[in-house]
Design brief:
The chain contains 26 helices and 19 strands. The chain has about 650 residues and is an alpha/beta fold. Helix 20 crosses helix 24, helix 20 crosses helix 25 and helix 24 packs antiparallel against helix 25. The relative contact order is 0.09.
């Protein structure tokens, strides 16, 4: 292997892993964030390409897929491709980056396409535990053919051996485990409490908690009648910024858990300029050049951000345009931007070098209340501090309000065991239809091979099997399959992951094919859109009303059958919150106008429009679909997928 790939000697755990790869064995690596797991992916890719073999690289989020595409293309040029549903570039390349969903779908629909691949790299494989998408990782591992070796890269988890043992049993192949607990760049955790910077948990208890474990227990008067309620002094930003500047601990990623909060904090921090004239000029040049490149010179968010840029500050969250986020990421990667306030998605593998990390709070909203962060979430964010080859050490500042969180909870967050990864197996109707085409009712033999089966027993295990059986019974009752195979209805449904039943019922009723391109586009956005809990109802819309009436009976039919077969959660009904916006966009309206037509952040608009494009692409490619629908879907897709929505055009800009 070319010594120039990495400018540093390999650590012992990397050497052990490379020896396993050289033996041609599958491998599961669990190591702290920032310890150098990516080196192993690089090694597999370099080794495979040198031997004329093909490699697939999967990532949990599209931003990470895009970043990897750029990184690998810089080194390997035309030998790199990407397939993410809304981007298709060089799909037959020897190294292809895919979302895990695309890889799973390929395994189910046309596994022969993968016959020439030697390795699959699963990055951030602890995503198996994700409540919504974890089942995709499980299915992807489950159905990987035996000729493809697996490289599974995970953050620190306590049950890595259990997961490896599951893969060994399912695939009847050796899977070696390499675990690493040491981090090459050591982390120091400090606390801001009572507006002081405290260096140790002991000092935190003594000075921050006034010697008590839990202030919440002190709010009620003791038996002697004296009230002992304590009050915390506010943690001021000026104190924290002074600490970071004076101790040379910038650049810093400042994590918080709300989009509005991220913006508010950034503007509050603007009172403390973090760069001087020598860095302001070069940073402003980078920002302006990137804005021009991505056609953001007149974008209102970019214009507002320019004021923060001059202070060395930025903010970043999912509600922003992808191009604006791209500009911010590149500015921060230059290390000229000294602080970025961001939500936790920034911690998911996107390689942004920082010396310090700040956690604005250790609790985040879940459902109706607030819960302590998971230890794994804490490690993921904290692990962004201190980058190898750049910093001697990393620093994590935890902002603590003793009225909201107990001292033992803080100790658990800092020193506790990370949560084990648990199966989230819950096959979609489309997955079952694809398996039924190949195996018939014998597809139920897949269940004992699942991680869910391995991690459960007794009644829980039986419930999992019965849910699969009930879904098959529903598909049979609704005419998607017979004893001999899939019906035409089932063939159609097998292509439409996540939205199978409603779209197939509309298609079978002859209603989907009757829609024009605009109506089909509005419907697809309504199908993918997830309203925020407690959000405003959709504004009245003529086409939305007509489509809602069109869908009413089919969705009731689906819900009735799901109720009958005790399947939950039920298929989501369409939500028409973006109907005005998508109709205007398909009529060539400028993007800025859409913000006046809905109560949704611009980044969310882009996300849902891109999801609709992905769904329309599926409809345009369905072999079982009627030609008229395929043509209309293609037309609708072209009208939506332009300018800021066109993810492929953005990626091709480099």
């Amino acid at each position: 292997m070319d010594d120039s790939i990495h400018p540093f000697p390999y650590d012992p755990f990397q050497q052990r892993a490379i020896a396993v790869i050289d033996r041609g064995s599958s491998l599961f690596v669990a190591a702290p964030t920032g310890s150098g797991k990516t080196v192993l992916a690089d090694y597999v890719i370099e080794r495979s390409l040198a031997r004329g073999q093909r490699v697939i690289y999967t990532a949990p989020i599209k931003a990470l897929s895009n970043q990897k595409f750029r990184d690998f293309t810089a080194r390997h040029g035309e030998r790199v491709g990407i397939l993410t549903g809304d981007v298709t570039i060089n799909p037959t390349a020897p190294l292809v980056i895919m979302t895990t969903e695309i890889y799973r779908n390929t395994l189910l629909e046309n596994v022969e396409r993968l016959s020439a691949y030697a390795w699959i790299i699963f990055d951030e494989i602890h995503y198996l535990d994700d409540p919504e998408r974890g089942t995709v990782w499980e299915e992807a591992i489950l159905f990987t053919p035996p000729h493809i070796n697996l490289l599974c890269l995970s953050a620190t988890i306590p049950n890595v051996e259990e997961l490896a043992q599951w893969i060994r049993r399912v695939h009847q192949r050796p899977v070696e485990v390499v675990e690493e607990t040491h981090r090459p760049v050591p982390l120091t955790v400090l606390f801001q409490c009572q507006n002081e910077i405290l260096d140790t948990p002991q000092e935190l208890k003594r000075s921050g908690y006034a010697g008590h474990d839990d202030w919440r227990r002190l709010r009620h008067p003791p038996r002697d009648g004296r009230h002992r309620q304590l009050f915390a002094r506010a943690n001021r930003l000026d104190r924290l910024i002074r600490e970071l500047q004076e101790r040379d601990r910038l650049p810093c990623i400042f994590f918080t858990f709300g989009r509005r909060r991220a913006e508010e904090l950034a503007w509050e921090l603007a009172a403390f300029p973090l760069i001087g004239e020598a860095e302001r000029g070069p940073l402003r040049t980078i920002f302006n050049e990137l804005c021009a490149k991505y056609q953001l010179t007149h974008d209102r968010t970019a214009q507002a951000l320019s004021q923060l840029i001059d202070r060395g500050i930025g903010f970043h969250h999912a509600g922003m345009l992808p191009t604006v986020k791209e500009v911010l990421e590149r500015c921060f990667a230059s290390r000229l931007m000294k602080l970025i306030v961001t939500t936790e998605t920034f911690a998911l593998g996107v390689n942004m070098p920082a010396r310090s990390v700040v956690l604005d709070t250790v609790k985040k909203r879940r459902g109706e209340g607030f819960e302590l962060l998971h230890r794994r979430q804490f490690l993921q964010m904290a692990g962004r501090a201190g980058r190898r080859g750049m910093d001697q050490a990393g620093f994590v500042y935890v902002r603590v309000n003793p009225q909201h969180v107990s001292h033992p909870e803080i100790l658990h967050l800092i020193h506790g065991q990370p949560e084990p990864v648990h199966s989230r197996f819950n096959t979609t109707y489309a997955t079952l239809l694809n398996l039924y085409r190949r195996h018939g009712r014998a597809l139920l033999d897949v269940f004992p091979k699942t991680l869910y089966y391995a991690q459960t027993s007794g009644a829980r295990r039986q419930l999992g099997l019965e849910l699969m059986q009930r879904k098959l019974d529903l598909l049979s009752a609704m005419g998607y399959l017979t004893k001999t195979g899939l019906t035409p209805k089932g063939e159609f449904g097998s292509w439409v992951y996540g939205y199978e039943l409603l779209l197939t019922e509309l298609y079978t009723d002859g209603r989907l094919g009757e829609l024009d391109a605009t109506a089909l586009g509005v419907l697809m956005v309504a199908v993918v859109y997830e309203p925020r809990p407690g959000g405003l109802p959709p504004k009245s819309h003529h086409l939305g009303k007509r489509l809602a009436a069109l869908c009413r009976e089919p969705i009731q039919r689906v819900h009735k059958e799901e109720g009958r077969w005790k399947i939950s959660p039920k298929t989501k009904a369409p939500s028409y919150h973006l109907a005005h916006a998508i109709e205007a966009w398909m009529g060539q309206a400028p993007f800025e106008r859409l913000l006046k037509l809905c109560d949704v952040d611009e980044g969310e608009i882009v996300r849902y429009f891109r999801m609709a494009v992905q769904l329309l692409r599926q409809l345009s490619e369905i072999p079982a679909g009627e030609p008229r629908l395929r043509v209309t879907a293609e037309k609708a897709m072209r009208r939506i997928n332009r300018d800021v929505i066109d993810a492929e055009a953005q990626l091709r800009l480099g």
